[in-house]
Amino acid sequence: MEKIDSVYRTLQQEIDTRMPVGFPESKEGHDIEILKLLFTEEEASIAIHLSALPETVNRIHKRVQKAGIDISIDTLCKMLDGLVNKGAISGGNGRYSLAQFAVGMFEYQAGRISKEFAEQSIAYVDEVFHKELIKKGVPVQLRVIPIGESITPERVVGTYDDVRAMIEGMPGPIATIPCVCRESRDITGTPCTVSDMRRVCTIFGSTAKALTNQGLATEVSKQEILGMLDEYRKAGFVLQPENNLDPSFMCVCCGCCCGVLTAAKQFPKPAELYHSNYIANSTAETCSGCGVCAKRCQMDAITIDEKKARVNPDRCIGCGNCVPTCKPGAIHLDARSSVVAPEKNQMAFYRKIIMKKRGPAKALVQLIGTTLLGKKF
Q1: Edge-to-edge strands, sheet with 238-241
Q2: Beta partners for 220?
Q3: pLDDT tens per residue, range 147-196
Q4: Ranges for all domains in the chain classified under CATH 1.10.10.10
Q5: pLDDT of residue 275
Q6: Is 60 exceeded by the pLDDT of residue 364?
Q7: N or C: which end of the chain has fewer CB within 10 A?
Q8: Beta carbons of 317 and 264 less than 8 angstroms apart
Q9: Considering all CA atoms of the chain, what is the largest pairwise distance in Å, rounded to the nearest integer?
Q10: Is the pLDDT of residue 269 over 60?
Q11: Nearby residues of 235 by Cβ (< 8 Å), 6 or more positions away
């Protein structure tokens, strides 16, 4: 048993040290149990030789052979394809790489998550992963963009904070998948308290095409997604696209289920750890104290004090859910004093995370070793 567990421990350490968002060790063993649900012992012994960057099967095969593992290229390819289909690693177009726990292995279970995987994942996030997912000084994988009808034209920061402009500018295809966070809560007996909608998370481009081909996603039109935005606003969902200008997905989140939001809520000042360009403000003279805004807030950032809504700036992430339902118009969104534009694309964003976590020197050495010497990134 110790020998078997050592293979999984090695894989855990590979994911933790190589991926932009790590996979820290769990003292309760949830990390190892998650890996055992995704990888056989043989598959884990192969996966430890994958890189954080996509590589061809030929390159991976050379590394595996050098490690003393006797396996043909055809068998290796079938094994890697099987791991991709299980959502254990990332892959496409004949190239394969390690996958992060989130966004990655966890999200790959959308539409097929088991109760055991859900239980282990929730426990893992609560125990240790929330500290890895959200770190001060390190960019968060998701950013918050305000819901429609919550920003007046004069307060718009940039088109990247306009959800309709973002969707209309997507070349396609577009697809939806079930929210794996809500599926996890459903299967473990603590269903979402915000809405019964499940197929809401939206994916774009090559990711949408790949998951649709695997039967894991349903292709939709831009008009269908734009039409659903009104339903998301009514429910009180928080819109969180990938934190770059060319996002491959947009999560549609709630404060009771979403792994990122529930992780952020564990910190005393989540607003300083989050990427959001807006903050809500309330005008006491206009506020009627009805409390609707406080009920809709997914971050517990609004309280009713002496029959007036009070916004806690340390907790507000500028989602805008409190604005359209405020009948007297007492709440509005303002641009924050420090506005941050997203990185150009996913690669630039992950590069920024790696630079922040490892420092420029270590990141450069690793990149040189990858490109010139064929080592793993």
Answers
A1: 218-220, 174-177, 201-204, 249-253, 238-241
A2: 174
A3: 876 655 544 555 678 899 899 989 889 999 999 999 999 999 999 999 99
A4: 2-99
A5: 83
A6: no
A7: N
A8: yes
A9: 75
A10: yes
A11: 194, 195, 197, 254
What are the tokens at 223?
């008009």
Q: Which of 180, 192, 178, 188 is nearest to 113 (CA)?
A: 180
Domain with CATH 3.30.70.20 in the chain: 270-335
| CATH code linked to domain 270-335 | 3.30.70.20
User: Tokens 């012994």 appear where?
Assistant: 45
Count other C-beta atoms under 10 Å from residue 1's C-beta: 5
Q: Which of 324, 328, 333, 321 lies closest to 307, judged by CA?
A: 328
For the cut 50, the answer to whether the pLDDT of residue 368 exceeds it is no
Task: Check whether the bond before 171 is cis (ω within 30° of 0).
Answer: no
CB 249 within 8 A of CB 241: yes
SS3 category, 353: helix
Are the C-beta atoms of residues 311 and 282 closer than 8 Å to each other?
Answer: yes
Query: Residue 333: enclosing H or E segment and its boundaries?
Result: strand 331-335
pLDDT tens string 32-86: 999 999 999 999 999 999 999 999 999 999 999 999 999 999 999 999 999 999 9
Q: Is the peptide bond before 103 cis (omega within 30 degrees of 0)?
A: yes
- Contact indicator for 218, 175 with CB cutoff of 8 Å: yes
- Output the pTM of the full model: 0.89
Residues composing the chain: 377
Residue 353 pLDDT level (bands cut at 50, 70, 90)? confident
Beta-carbon contacts of 255 under 8 Å, excluding residues fewer than 6 positions away, are 194, 238, 261, 262, 265, 297, 298, 299, 300
Residue 363 pLDDT > 60: no
Classify domain 2-99 at the CATH class level: mainly alpha
Gyration radius from the chain CA atoms: 22
Nearest to 197 by CA among 231, 168, 221: 231
Do strands 95-97 and 55-56 pair parallel, antiparallel, or not at all (unpaired)?
antiparallel
- The DSSP H or E segment spanning 181 is helix 180-187
